[in-house]
Amino acid sequence: MHYYMMVSPTEALIASMLDSSDFASYMATGPRKTTSEQLIFAELTGEFGSDFDWDYAHRACRAHPDGSPKHSVYLSVYRVLERVPLSHLGNLFLVAKDGRSLQLSPGDRPHPEHWRGYALYKELCPVTPLVASSLPPEPFSRYLLDSTNHISVPAIVFADVKIIDLDNPGHSDNGEDLYDYRGREHLRSCFDEVRKGPGKRSKTIDRSADIHFTYRSIADGIYFARYKDGIVFYPMPDRDEIREHHYEWGRSANFY
């Protein structure tokens, strides 16, 4: 039996007899291949604590009378992320709409010397806005998790998103055509506010950005952070690596 934590498009903890690739295909396309949904989930390394009913999982997640595996048993669909210790995170899976999945493993965070003074973040769970920020990923996560702030969350999953070089847009490899959030001028004005406003750490660009978010817009990778539990980073392969080693997934995810 496996445990999977869904973080996008919904938050859930699911027990399943399927391995990660079959589970990805089942969740994205359904048992009859009639649905089509992009999703992100992490495999958990085992059971922990008493917040979830593990005994129910063992009772309910059993093979059907004909011997076929149980596809999914939902253990929770509410406030899951904040109750999962980062130490129990396994691999992360980015699933395309046709059910193909890209497996990411935890890795080293980007070196601070690459920081250019601003970033674009797509929050994925439990809230989902697109945000401009003057903070690098780790300070950004601490800012979101700080309960002394007027608004905070106990845990967060977010991706850093590609953006043009705002200081030298004509020499940027990351085109603005990756997203169109109410026009390029709105995007630029939000960054102007963050970069020039004293003490301004973040600015919401789009509160309903899920419909625009694509895997090809991810820059360095995806971050999981939890209050007093640190941060886990999943590096995203670049386009050339995806083409060479994960071609079919890349085609499904519209990388080329």
Task: Provide a descriptive summary of the structure in words.
The strands form two sheets. A six-stranded antiparallel β-sheet has the order 4-2-1-3-5-6, sandwiched between helices. A six-stranded antiparallel β-sheet has the order 10-8-7-9-11-12. The mean pLDDT is 89. The chain is α+β, with helices and mostly antiparallel strands. Strand 5 and strand 6 form a beta hairpin. The protein folds into two domains: 103 residues, no CATH class; 122 residues, no CATH class.
Key descriptive features of the protein:
2 domains; 20% helix; globular; alpha+beta; 6-stranded antiparallel sheet; 6 helices; 256 residues
Layout of helices and strands:
Blueprint: E1 2-8, E2 12-16, H1 20-29, E3 39-44, H2 54-60, E4 73-76, E5 89-95, E6 101-104, E7 119-125, E8 130-133, H3 137-145, E9 155-161, H4 184-196, E10 202-206, E11 218-226, E12 230-235, H5 239-245, H6 247-252
Antiparallel strand pairs: 1-2, 1-3, 2-4, 3-5, 5-6, 7-8, 7-9, 8-10, 9-11, 11-12
Brief digest:
By secondary structure, this protein is α+β, with helices and mostly antiparallel strands.
For the secondary structure, the number of strands is 12
Name the overall outline.
Answer: globular
Structural class: alpha+beta
Q: Percent range for helical residues?
A: 10-25%
Low-confidence stretches: none
Q: N-to-C terminal Cα separation, in Å?
A: 36 Å
Mean pLDDT across every amino acid position: 89
